[in-house]
Amino acid sequence: MTMLTGLTIAQARDGLDKGDFSAEELAGAHIEAVERVRHLNAFITETPELALDAARASDARRAAGGALGAMDGIPIAIKDLFCTEGVLTTAGSHILDGFVPPYESTVTANLKAGGAVMLGKTNLDEFAMGSSNMTSYYGPVINPWKAADGKHRVPGGSSGGSAAAVAARAALGAIGTDTGGSIRQPGAFTGTVGMKPTYGRCSRWGVVAFASSLDQPGPMTRTVRDAAIMLQAMAGFDAKDSTSAPRDLPDFEGALASGVKGMRIGIPNEYRMDGTPKEVENLWRKGIQWFKDMGAETVDVSLPHTKYALPTYYIVAPAEASSNLARYDGVRYGLRVPGDSLDDQYELTRAEGFGDEVRRRVMIGTYVLSAGYYDAYYLKAQKVRTLIAQDFRNAFEDVDVLLTPTTPSAAFVIGEKMDDPIAMYLNDIFTVPASMAGLPAISVPAGLSRDGLPLGLHLIAPAFDEITLFRAAAALEEAADFTARPGETGE
Amino acid sequence: MSLDTETVRAIARLARIRVPGDAQDELANELSNILGWVEQLAEVDTDGVAPMTSVADMTWPRRDDTVTDGDCRAKVLANAPERHDGFYTVPKVVE
């Protein structure tokens, strides 16, 4: 029998259905794997007892002929940004010390209602602000992929723990959240599939808020099919999130076999940027050729405002963050540093509770929203955001999906770029534009760098057209035939 | 835009984050660099462009104005760093 931790979700589902192994055995194998890769620091909280209880309940359901669906009995990891009832939820921040939510996020509730088994809560950049997992109060995560120089790489961020857990075979899948690339960039850095649905597809209720107009939960898996299976169980309208889309869910997995013959693949000119390494450009060129070979047509398109997406993001996201993070006051939950007055207590609590990057963004956000600067920064950024979204709408009049690289490089060495915030921000240069327009996008592992580290290709589809996105991604996955494995796994 | 330390102190105050005196210069530098970089947006012609206020192309939903949750004081207070008699506590604000 194949090692249980080496299965895909689809294979595990079929094995459970056939009775080849039990959910308890599957959970047990993953609990051991989680322990074996503990040095990667992918998990903040492990929940092995809860996992075994949930797995036994799944086995009982299946024995009684009442399995709940594709995710029933599947062990997964949850980014520690999702509130989980009765289980510590930290957002990677000191300021949420000891916070045990009295309620469950809608996305995790949906997954649990489908029988999914939670292995634990994964590490992340503090409040999901980062591209390296270096800003976590709980320390950096080590990428399970090793380069010849022996130096530890970052797994990307902010969903770095989730990506590392999936890559290291310590979970069959994981959930992350993506604000500017926080699912897709770590997907690319760890050789896994990272999918950001259309804004509104998955409920944000119970997800610790960073930038509310951008945040979107999504699946992180080892195959495109698994991403489709997981999204099916996560997504759907939720009355508790006023930006949740009141739309029916299509059958995502059913879209995979349709192929890309005749599909029009847009190649955005503006993503050919100075300074992009040759190996990234070459992989992109290969991707274009793969699609041609599969009968798709590739078309050059223009997204003229691409270069402004990142600076726009770094006004809009910090502005929303400064507002969302105003709730951390040392009164209702988390850390409290006593002061002589209420203001004193606020200031001392927030000074100690927030790390450098969070402080930086809250202060930028406060500044761009302050009287006298609002129009010049925030209002201007909102207008440019309209133009960015319009660029995509124009392009999608001519093409079905866009193909770009996911990241401008492979995973970098832990500690790099920490003294230069803008260099760090540039990691998300290819992922942020789709976020600004609320579009669904996916990173598919497609090749290796010359150092032997994974690289991803990135597809972007029109709003609520995840079906086309999955079709193209499945074809890309098949063409790329990415079979390399990380040096370090829990097997 | 280059921020001086006085502006940094004012922002820190608005954001209710205490920034020690010896950290203000460096923070002024960092924030100035980021603001200098985002200011490239000034070159984009946005005359007559409506600001995006919602990325989701939808009308805001309404719901019945009924109580759907509540009556769970103990649960809500359970995470408070300090509580007293069913209330959150704060330093004295009224003399």
Return residue spans of chain B where pLDDT drops below 50 for at least 5 consecutive residues. none
Distinct helical segment count of chain B:
3
Overall radius of gyration of chain A? 21 Å
Report mean pLDDT of chain B, rounded to a whole number. Answer: 93
Q: Secondary-structure element sequence of chain A?
A: HHEHEHEHEHEEHEHEHHHHEHHEEH
| Overall number of structural domains of chain A | 1
Number of strands of chain B: 2
The CATH class of chain A turns out to be Alpha Beta
Helices and strands, with pairings:
The complex is a heterodimer of chains A (491) and B (95).
Chain A lengths: L8 H10 L4 H14 L6 E4 L1 H16 L11 E5 L26 H8 L3 E6 L37 H8 L5 E6 L5 H7 L2 E4 L19 E6 L2 H11 L29 E5 L9 H16 L3 E5 L4 H19 L17 H12 L2 H13 L6 H21 L5 E5 L15 H5 L6 H5 L4 E8 L5 E7 L5 H15 L11
Parallel strand pairs in A: 2-3, 2-4, 7-8, 7-9
Antiparallel strand pairs in A: 1-3, 4-6, 5-6, 5-10, 9-11, 10-11
Chain B lengths: L4 H10 L6 H18 L34 H5 L5 E2 L2 E2 L7
Antiparallel strand pairs in B: 1-2
Helix pairs in contact in B: 1-2
Task: Give a description of the structure.
The complex is a heterodimer of chains A (491) and B (95). Chain A has 491 residues and is α/β, with parallel strands linked by helices. Chain A has helices spanning 9-18, 23-36, 48-63, 106-113, 160-167, 184-190, 224-234, 278-293, 306-324, 342-353, 356-368, 375-395, 421-425, 432-436, 466-480; strands spanning 43-46, 75-79, 117-122, 173-178, 193-196, 216-221, 264-268, 297-301, 401-405, 441-448, 454-460. Chain A has a single domain, classed as Alpha-Beta Complex (Amidase signature (AS) enzymes). In chain A, strands 1-3-2-4-6-5-10-11-9-7-8 form an 11-stranded mixed β-sheet, with helices on both faces. The longest helix of chain A has 21 residues, at 375-395. With 95 residues, chain B is mainly alpha-helical. Chain B has a domain at 5-42. Chain B has a two-stranded antiparallel sheet with strand order 1-2. Chain B starts with a helix and ends in a 7-residue tail after the last strand. Chain B is 35% helix and 4% strand. The interface between A and B is large, with 68 and 52 residues.
